[in-house]
Q: What sequence folds into this?
């Protein structure tokens, strides 16, 4: 039995590790091939789950994903390749916000928060423009 139940445990584990490594390489290749203008593909490669919200603003987009009790957010710049101030933050109601801020060329984040069944507030900023969601995903 090639790789089935009859395969030794070490062989199954190495196949699993190879599959995981291949998945990571494919995701990285998608980021490189996608390039500018494919923000949805970049955000999907960075966050797991289904897209819950897209918050657009003048200088970028903040994309929110949800999987189980976790919320993931990424802020993508409209103009990529230029180092500029970017921020993404996610706050589950009753907790402090988790923030990724700095001077980036493509995106800020991902930021992942365990929200359970609580509402979250998401904010994104690129340069001087920003977006805020208010309490969502309640």
A:
């Amino acid at each position: 039995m090639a790789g089935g139940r009859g395969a030794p445990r070490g062989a199954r584990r190495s196949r699993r590790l190879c599959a995981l490594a291949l998945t990571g390489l494919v995701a990285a290749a998608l980021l490189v091939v996608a390039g500018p203008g494919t923000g949805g593909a970049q955000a999907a490669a960075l966050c797991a789950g289904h897209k819950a919200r897209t918050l657009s603003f003048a200088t970028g987009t903040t994309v929110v994903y949800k999987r189980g009790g976790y919320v993931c957010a990424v802020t993508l710049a409209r103009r990529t390749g230029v180092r500029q101030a970017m921020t993404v933050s996610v706050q589950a109601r009753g907790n402090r916000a988790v923030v990724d801020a700095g001077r980036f060329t493509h995106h800020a984040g991902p930021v992942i928060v365990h929200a359970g069944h609580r509402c979250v507030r998401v904010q994104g900023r690129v340069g001087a423009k920003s977006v805020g969601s208010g309490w969502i995903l309640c």
Remarks:
- The longest helix spans residues 9-34.
